[in-house]
Amino acid sequence: PSVPRHTNRLINEKSPYLLQHAHNPVDWYPWGQEAFDKAKKENKVIFLSVGYSTCHWCHVMEEESFKNKEIGEIMSKNFVCIKVDREERPDVDKVYMTFVQATSGGGGWPMSVWLTPDLKPFVGGTYFPPEDGVHRIGFRTVLLRIAEQWKENKDALLENSQKILEALLHRSEIRVQGQESPPPSKEVMATCFQQLSSSYDADYGGFSESPKFPTPVNLNFLFTYWALHRTTPEGARALQMALHTLKMMAHGGIHDHIGQGFHRYSTDQHWHVPHFEKMLYDQGQLAATYSRAFQISGDEFFADVAKDILLYVSRDLSDQSGGFYSAEDADSYPTTSSGEKREGAFCVWAAEEIRALLPDLVEGAAEGTTLGDVFMHHYGVKETGNVSPMKDPHQELKGKNVLIVRCSPELTAARFGLELGRLGVLLQEGRQRLSTARAQRPRPHLDTKMLAAWNGLMISGFAQAGAALAEPEYVSRAAQAAAFLQKHLFDPTSGRLLRSCYRGKDNTVEQSAVPIQGFLEDYVFVIQALFDLYEASLEQGWLEWALQLQHTQDKLFWDPKGFAYFSSEADDPSLLLRLKDDHDGAEPTANSVTVTNLLRAACYSGHTEWVAKAGQILAAYSERLQKIPIALPEMARATAVFHHTLTQVVICGDPQGEDTKEMLRCVHSVFSPNKVLMLADGDSAGFLHRQLPFLASLERKDGKATAYLCSNFTCSLPVTSPQELRGMLCP
């Protein structure tokens, strides 16, 4: 590559997204005091551009505008230009996205916002084309107009920005009104089920026409709803909706049949043509959800999908230090000699490529049938490509195929006169050869930033899959990642988490010059991961760390006046608003997950004030939970856990004993949304025994591993047979 003509300050950053912009002919600054001081000193408007490294339209705007020398000059001359990676700074992103959504009616990335020197927004939007078109105003024009306005009408702009800020503060407040109690769980669950049910796509699964996102929060809600209504028609429908959606997703093109893992979302109703980026948070949540589907149904199909996701993450998103990378991009070079990247190039196939790779004749099938014929039939491959032009506006996928399972193995086997087992072997061989061929293609960009929150979601995925599928190596991978967090994203002196670290030169783990402190979601997802890891491994050290982090979270983020937790800390003067998220989307919102965390923490510690806090969060969100619980399915689910109180499943036994292991396997094999597992190993000096004195009164019956089901620290009669225990866990 030639020596870059331009280099700006972003060259000193660690974020892969910021580094992608380090050679733009724009005087970019990272978010920080240096930029703020310059804006104040020179009395200039700040242009804030927010995106992330796997964002397709972010790449487009960079190519068209930020790499354009003339536009770069207009930007640098008239504005202080700041670039933010929203995955590093979700707090900054959220403040200004709230503004963009309120003033333009839409939002998304890249986000483009103009701020006064004291950081108040006054104009905002998302993607701008470089020049004026018939329907859209161009970026160059917007820049020149805003620069002009600032010269002519500065006072009006300043006054306006102050009004906007006051309106935003008022709009975005989530607080308890008066002496509210938590909303009635039964009604919240019923309304959420009704709302999901009426938006459900009975043919293809999922909860919208298109685009379709995996949204594991919806599926987890439905599993819990089923567990509480097993014998009713609604309960049966909830389970059917969740399992059908998971099946259709796994068959679809959103699932990478050759390279494993799931893409971010489908552009169509059929889960067929995806946006091809792969996000860590999706893999973590989906691994857990498919494991639950296996626990509930006993269908190996779901276990295989969970294993497939974990294979992808272990191979492609894992750092040798134990941490997990953030994402893989959608765009890549089709061949090593290509000049420009195309979306999906790494993942799609022309029919002739597949024919050339799979020419072997298939014994036992009709004469002349090749492996290619069988493979192409099963995966919906067409000679002219299987992507509708409607779903390919830039014609990047013309003549290409996105693999999708169009018919059951039984139908494909019957079509070619093959036995089912034989078909499985043939398809496996086909996938293997395509995988080898794909490895020769240029890979998409890998975002090697490691985030505490997303690592937490992935640890939960490995831990829950390890427990539910009885695969100890998944549990040890989760433990390796938790040890990575403790070493690289935790400061033992202050007891605080850090947000991010990075893969550096020579594969070392690096930290930025000024480390970013953890946000609420980092604490919440890591605490959840540590509880999941304790239940899978029964190592008490993880429990101890989880409770310590919960205390820190309370101290840094709790809102004592309005209840619930703020997303960010109080002491950052550059943040105009402290917000509380109110939407469970691609990721659950932190306040939703923390309700269950607090209830689990209380069970492991006896601190009942955590139960009170959980109730106060539900009270703060009460109105939203009663009107549109479909916006908060994870919190709606938590209302049921709160209402039914958690059952402590205590196994008294020797951790190494076969009888203990058998009891534990029984607990892990059952889906029960309101259980908390603990092992009483009889070590009175151990952490759990010190926290929970009542454990000392529980003993092993006839020297055998014994289970007790306890609620509010009062326990059932002892049980020593796994069958009996299973009956108690599945009433």
Automatic annotation (TrEMBL):
What is the name of the gene encoding this protein?
Spata20
Note the InterPro entries from the entry.
6-hairpin_glycosidase_sf, 6hp_glycosidase-like_sf, Ssp411, Ssp411-like_TRX, Thioredoxin-like_sf
Coiled coil spans? none
Task: Please name the Gene3D superfamilies in this protein's record.
Answer: 1.50.10.10, Glutaredoxin
**Looking at the Swiss-Prot or TrEMBL record, what is one Pfam family this protein matches?**
Thioredox_DsbH
Superkingdom in the source lineage: Eukaryota
Residue ranges of every copy of the Spermatogenesis-associated protein 20-like TRX domain listed in the record: 7-168
| Name of the protein in question | SPT20 protein
Residues passing through the membrane, by range: none
Single Gene Ontology BP annotation: carbohydrate metabolic process
